[in-house]
Design goal:
2 copies of one chain form a homodimer. Chain A has 321 residues and is mainly α. Chain A is 74% helix and 1% strand. Chain A has one domain: Orthogonal Bundle (Farnesyl Diphosphate Synthase). Chain A is built from 15 helices and 2 strands. Chain A has a two-stranded antiparallel sheet.
Chain lengths: 321, 321
């Protein structure tokens, strides 16, 4: 998602970007290098964007939003860095991961450091809802990671299991971002709830799309090897569908549970998944979430930001990187 | 430090223990097993103990202390689990580490999960000082870990570097425990500060003693291999002293920077460190911290808990496990 897509909050995003750079400034040269590298590697800043947009519904106040927006991105970054420790993916966003450059030990503590920095920012807020929601979110994010590990290479999974995982992996933090932006600006309770639901639907659609792209994108655009989820034994929605509906489901099963797949086998699996309609099915589910998100938007007050969120919703449904 | 040592807060510690068990209860069987294992593995519960004792100085109220005491132990546990990820120590407290049983990936996320649980407990407190101090403490703890990694096998270290590291590794959280116990019970500001300083001195003495025991304890009592710090390239106070003062300092230097030491070489290094007085020197520094801690205690109000803290101070100085 390119930044010029959010021209109307460009100024706000620049402020967040500057604060993010400051948050990872540190006297130890090794850590500064690692953290700065991570910040520079970019990413979509999706969570700060949702936080700021959420704040636009009621008494918008950047001073109240900046620490939260930065904290949300730091929590996200920490989870990426800790993911690098665990799944030995060697590239992320086309740049070497922290792990690949500095090893597991540094990754673990750089992740903890980023998380700690986010806690310092969150501790500034008087409203107890902000630390509460974020604390509960991080517990659930860890639960999701652990379940993802314990169910990896397990083909006996239903859609329900997949939704449980991606809610924890992605949707919860995005939905918290939308909601807490409003909370930080003192919006009334019903607005929190609507933004929470909007964020949930968008987050689910976003992760389903991510999982589709892992099977379909060009490697250059994705910035990481195609079929990485299959390689790591992460069973995504198109795979669950194909394991039930593909005429070649026995072969797909065989490849899926194999911990040492060749690239040829991954390509074979992707073909089986695509040919039985697994990709189309998952894209359809993502679209349903987009519809739900837009329906939720319709209930929100008519302020200019609503139009931006509508565009975001459309974009999440069609993005190809 | 055995629990019967704290007979006067036995009841309180049982409550903390129960809540700790509850905090790590989880629907995923893999995580429950990992976390329960970690809780059962025990440990001294030093941070809850200091938190409760800190609370005894002013309007003692267990309801206010329990979530904090549990959170402090969870933060400590999370740091142990993440330590297991990074330094590949295979045993801790005589039991297999989480890592040894479940692998790096689970350790990373179990650590994050424990930390998340602590945040949920901390979010209950109205006083902004509690999340603030703990957030700043976790940032510094991560900094300390990173510096420990980046300076490992580096023999060009002064006492100052060592004190910087052990303050972040141990003293900060112990000092936060003492202080925040008082904060949670609404004690006045000067009491916070005195308990903070007391905790700092005790924490420093505790870690110096730990580092001495790593070189001198019987393996069975320690529950991990002797000379583990040397093996991992962590340069502790007795080593810094010996690298300056031992007649065999060139040989010691040679062994210290070798990343693949044999057990014989570790024993040779320990002999060199001991014979030049490195152990005695470090023990002397620990004693000085104990004296400072007791001096700080003397300034505190005369309540029964003072006697307990005095005993703790004495014990930290002479403990051999």
């Amino acid at each position: 998602m390119s930044i010029d897509f959010f021209d109307d909050i460009k100024h706000e995003l620049n402020i967040v970007e500057e604060e993010l750079q400051k948050a990872v400034h540190f006297s130890d040269p090794l850590l500064t290098e690692a953290a700065t590298h991570l910040v520079s590697a970019g990413g979509k800043r999706l969570r700060p964007i949702f936080c700021i947009l959420g704040g636009k519904f009621h008494n918008f106040d950047m001073d109240k939003l900046v620490p939260l927006a930065v904290a949300l991105e730091l929590i996200h970054m920490a989870s990426l860095v800790h993911d690098d420790v665990v799944d030995s993916s060697m590239t992320r966003r086309g740049m070497p991961t922290i792990k690949a450059r500095w090893g597991n030990r540094i990754s673990t503590h750089v992740g903890d450091y980023l998380l700690g920095k986010s806690l310092v920012l969150i501790a500034r807020y008087q409203d107890p809802l902000i630390p509460k929601v974020l604390a509960e979110t991080s517990v659930k994010m860890s639960e999701g990671e652990i379940v993802q590990i314990s169910t990896s290479f397990n083909t006996n999974q239903a859609n329900r299991d997949y939704f449980y995982r991606i809610n924890r992996k992605t949707a919860l933090l995005i939905s918290a971002s939308c909601k807490l932006g409003a909370v930080a600006c003192g919006a009334p309770e019903p607005l929190h709830q609507a933004l929470h639901r909007f964020g949930h639907h968008i987050g689910m659609a976003f992760q389903i799309t991510d999982d589709i792209l892992d099977l379909t994108a060009e490697q250059v655009k994705l910035g990481k090897p195609i079929g990485g989820d299959l390689q790591q034994g992460i069973i995504t929605l198109p795979v669950i569908y194909a394991l039930k509906n593909s005429p070649g489901r026995e072969r797909l099963q065989e490849i899926t549970i194999n911990r040492n797949k060749t690239n040829e086998e991954i390509n074979e699996a992707i073909t089986l998944i695509r040919e039985c309609g697994g990709i189309d099915y998952a894209a359809g589910v993502a679209r349903k979430y987009i519809v739900k998100a837009k329906r939720e938007l319709a209930t929100l007050p008519d302020v200019p930001v609503k139009k931006t969120l509508q565009t975001v919703a459309d974009f999440v449904g069609i993005r190809n990187f």
